[in-house]
Design a protein that fits this description.
With 120 residues, the protein is mainly β. It is 0% helix and 63% strand. It has no helices and seven strands.
Length: 120
């Protein structure tokens, strides 16, 4: 899939919400999120686990189904409304759990992204 740019939107940083991501390398996801955040003055630290479904808009050797599970963990450092983050994103067909719908091997794909953004 190579390198790419990702756009991500979250409904919230704390509590239960939804996250959407799309990337220029053809990987997309819809995920349930649950954010935990601590604040100290204008600074914040957040941790957001994610679980949902992902989609590859083209053939990817590591993702033989096209649509598969998405699992992630995002760490956010904030100052006022500015955010700096790092995220681990795993996609696979779930064959280790018996959830796959194809006989192709479950290689899976792991990505790490460095992020900047803002909260409003």
């Amino acid at each position: 899939t190579g390198q790419g740019v990702m756009l991500e939107a979250l409904t919230c940083e704390t509590g239960l919400g939804v996250g959407l991501k799309t990337s220029t390398n053809g990987l997309h996801a819809v995920e349930a999120i649950y954010g935990i955040q601590g604040n100290l003055g204008p600074f914040s630290l957040g941790l957001i686990p994610k679980l949902g479904m992902s989609y590859a808009s083209h053939t990817v050797k590591e993702l033989p189904q096209g649509t598969q599970f998405s699992l992630g963990l995002q760490f956010l450092l904030g100052y006022d409304s500015l955010r700096l983050g790092i995220e681990y994103w795993h996609m696979s067909n779930g064959s280790a759990l018996g959830l796959n719908t194809t006989d192709k091997p479950n290689i899976g794909l792991d990505l790490v992204s460095i992020q900047t953004g803002f909260a409003f």
